[in-house]
């Protein structure tokens, strides 16, 4: 297999639902070698959910890969639910899943919001982490939220205009709060319109070159609603993190092996956050992809993610 390519498609060896609260149960699946090195895949969003292509970053003969839909996302139930849905809840769910699957320690793999979650999980449970592969760094800070809502339009003005066009003049003064209100409106048609507009805005800004095939393409309205409502919910609540929390707590995982992969022209999660993380984590390997934006499926980022899982074999087996 050429290392620039993803591994062949594979089906879950086992899957199921885990009840994590009275309200929520999360969908999980496992692929690969049942005796292999465990790795947890953390999807983006919040609310994006997992997809079959996510299984293909890992050598199924070496890794025991665990993927799951976070609360309210994908197949997890109830769908698009924001009650009992905080960063701390998700961290607790990861631990419950680890214990349920009787895994002692695992490699943490996450991109975008998955990088945020991976870092917070690592800082909460450093003894459970073999190492980290992180892509499209998002530290969950207010400046990054403001950039997502207001700044991306500097590079994608047409997308920003479409994003704002469904809002009234009054609503446009606080688009984040206005979108959250619309995404919770009792009228399903209002929810759907807002979900489509939010998802299109993010998707339109995710790649360096327009290429629909590089995005996961949230065509299902349920997927669009999960992504939009959960992202708006988390952003309004500052991702349930204190300012600079991840950087302040980084010391407890700085001795862990890490590879950080970042698109030079990532407009969704600009490179400044990756640079800040690496500046405080000098032992981490840092790969800047000169011809890529945000999507994990852009050729350069895809290649480096596969190479990272290959290189990490030596480290986690030592």
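^ Assign residues to that structure.
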């Amino acid at each position: 297999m050429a290392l620039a390519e993803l591994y062949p498609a594979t089906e879950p060896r086992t899957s199921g639902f885990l009840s994590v609260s009275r309200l929520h149960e999360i969908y999980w699946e496992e692929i690969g070698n049942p005796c292999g090195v465990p790795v947890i895949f953390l999807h983006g969003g919040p609310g994006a959910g997992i997809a079959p292509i996510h299984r293909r970053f890992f050598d199924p003969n070496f890794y025991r890969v665990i993927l799951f839909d976070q609360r309210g996302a994908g197949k997890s139930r109830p769908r698009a639910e924001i009650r009992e849905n905080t960063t701390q809840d998700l961290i607790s769910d990861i631990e419950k899943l680890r214990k349920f699957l009787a895994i002692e320690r695992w490699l943490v793999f996450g991109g975008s919001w998955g990088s945020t979650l991976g870092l917070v999980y690592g800082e909460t449970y450093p003894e459970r982490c073999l190492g980290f592969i992180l892509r499209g760094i998002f530290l969950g800070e207010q400046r990054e939220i403001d950039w997502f809502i207001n700044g991306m339009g500097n590079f994608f003005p047409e997308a920003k205009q479409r994003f704002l066009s469904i809002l009234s003049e009054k609503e446009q003064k606080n688009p984040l709060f206005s979108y959250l209100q619309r995404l919770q409106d009792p009228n399903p048609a209002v929810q759907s319109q807002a979900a489509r507009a939010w998802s299109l805005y993010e998707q339109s800004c995710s790649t360096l070159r327009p290429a629909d095939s590089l995005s996961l393409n949230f065509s299902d309205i349920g997927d669009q609603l999960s992504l939009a409502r959960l992202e708006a919910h988390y952003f309004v609540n500052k991702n349930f993190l204190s300012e600079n929390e991840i950087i302040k707590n980084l010391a407890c995982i700085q001795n862990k092996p890490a590879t950080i992969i970042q698109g030079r022209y990532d407009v969704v999660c600009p490179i400044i956050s990756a640079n800040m993380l690496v500046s405080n984590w000098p032992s981490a390997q840092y790969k800047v992809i000169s011809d890529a934006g945000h999507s994990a499926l852009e050729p350069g980022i895809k290649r480096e993610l596969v190479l990272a899982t290959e290189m990490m074999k030596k480290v986690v087996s030592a």
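The mean pLDDT is 94.
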